[in-house]
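Attaching the record inline, Q. Sequence:
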Amino acid sequence: MTTFITRYETAGGDGVRLAVKDLIDMEGQPTTAGCRAVAQCALPAPRDAACMAGARAAGARVVGRTNLHELALGVTGINPWYGTPVNPLDPALVPGGSSSGSAVAVATGEADVAYGSDTGGSIRIPAACCGTAGLKTTWGRIPLDGVWPLSPSFDTVGPMARDVAGLVVGMELLEPGFAMAETTGVAIGRLRPAADPLIDAAVDRILLEAEWPVLELTAPGWDRATADAALLLVVEAWESNRALVASNPEGIGTDVRERLLSGATFDATAVTAAWSGQQAWRAALDNLFDQVDFLVTPTLSLFPPRIEDGSPLLAGRCTLPVNLAGFPALSLPLRTGGPLPASIQLIGPPHSEERLLAAGAWLESAALG
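Structure, as predicted:
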């Protein structure tokens, strides 16, 4: 099965069935990061990653270590070494990345909850492609000790599940004592990056059904934030993996290796300007959150493309500005009236996961009403 790099037998237990992305250390198991160069020299991890502590204490049953876009640096989920997880909505379509196996594991019912990582959209994009739910957590909220680094200034770990209830369970495992907040109504700021009209209509419809006040807002720095995040992410990815490229370049897939090498091409002036842009972007979002509780966009501005034509996903993601700010965001599937669901992205201020999930539960109930 291409969903998992390693499967485990869990029959007979009654704990939550948990799938773990194979860049999160588990004691006694090698971590591959979905990369042949890493796998060839990987030793069994001496200890669990810090984010596994709650799941171990709760008796979660780890069903397997999930496949991913190699080194977590890609959005399609296509992996040249371990195969590509099959999108349950349509096998011809990309599953999304980088947490592709985690999205497929919960979509197919092979796990109740999955752990993914999100540096530039790697939880939310596969959730959108596979019709599932995903939560990008506030940067720094979930410890990253024992998690293979990509871009440490943006890396996060978060839960993936079929619905909000599953995400709450995932947060309870990641952060024992987590509890969803109470909420009945919230003010929404609607941002409109260019998107497929069917996707935009699905987002507008669910907001109308939720009966929330919606304020049309603009975020003039959106495109700049996307560009700054993309630059900084690949620069840090190069620093994280340059030794691997030097030691075994042929053990890294062509697309990922070329993306890593591009991170070495930016001069210091461009990098400094991008870091300055991060500060301005956070301030801009803070100003918007003075007016509303959450911001809303599509997660993807397009429907998942076919496997042989996956490149539009890079331009279609609405996720990078959230990572640049370090803020949390929730992605949920939406009906469109067509064969594929859309996905809504709710963006909150730092450490608002409890309220974000409550708002997501309200949206789900509105969709069923």
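The chain has twelve helices and eleven strands. Residues 186 and 293 are 6 Å apart (CA to CA).

More tomorrow.
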